[in-house]
Design brief:
Helix content is about 45%, strand content about 5%. With about 120 residues, the chain is mainly α. It folds into 2 domains: about 60 residues, Helicase, Ruva Protein, domain 3 (Orthogonal Bundle), CATH 1.10.8; about 45 residues, 30s ribosomal protein s13, domain 2 (Irregular). The relative contact order is 0.11.
Length: about 120
């Protein structure tokens, strides 16, 4: 099993698919990394030798921010938006969608489970 950027890659998958298990690397970046390291994208991860793994590690570390470093940068960007009090920062703080989506019916992922509000009872005369 290959361990790159603190992530254990699944050994029975193709290299281009396995690299996407690393946070910050999608399929296009995986293809680019394998090109730089001169590794066949269709080769299974279990068939990689130590030289190929070292080349992939080097290509990732010199080109991209991945895993913890990328996560912390994203969190710092969100914190900055919240601190300056811009629209996106306020939406983050309140837990609502921030890219213009409607919130009347959907957006349950951001808002969480429904909170039922009971109707007011009419006063009896």
């Amino acid at each position: 099993m290959a361990r790159i950027a603190g992530v254990d890659l699944p050994k029975y998958k193709r290299g281009i698919i396995g690299l996407t298990y690393i946070y910050g690397i999608g399929s296009s970046r995986a293809k680019l990394v394998l090109e730089q390291a001169n590794v066949d994208p269709n080769k299974k991860i279990q068939d990689w030798n130590d030289e190929e793994i070292a080349g992939i590690r080097a290509a990732i570390s010199e080109s991209f921010k991945v895993e913890g470093e990328l996560r912390s940068e994203t969190q710092m960007n969100i914190k900055r938006l919240m601190d300056i009090g811009c629209y996106r920062g306020i939406r983050h703080r309140v837990g609502l969608p921030l890219r213009g989506q409607r919130t009347k019916n959907n957006s349950r992922t951001r808002k969480g489970k429904r909170k039922t509000v009971a109707n007011k009872k009419k006063a009896v005369k």
